[in-house]
Amino acid sequence: MKKIGVLFGKERSFPYGVIERINSKQIDGIAAEPVSISKVMQGEPTDYAVIIDRISQDVPFYRAYLKNAALRGTAVINNPFWWSADEKFFNNCLATQINVPVPKTVLLPSYELPTDTSNESFTNLAYPMDWQGIFDYVGFPAYMKPFAGGGWKNVYRLDSLADFYQKHPETEQLVMLLQEEIVFDEYYRCYCIGGKHVRIMPYEPRNPHHLRYVADFSPSPERYKLMEDIVLRINQYLGYDFNTVELALRDGVPYAIDFCNPAPDADINSVGQENFDWVIETAANFAIEKAMAQVPGQDNLTWGAYIKNSAAGKALF
Question: Does the domain spanning 104-180 belong to CATH 1.10.287?
Answer without folding.
Answer: no
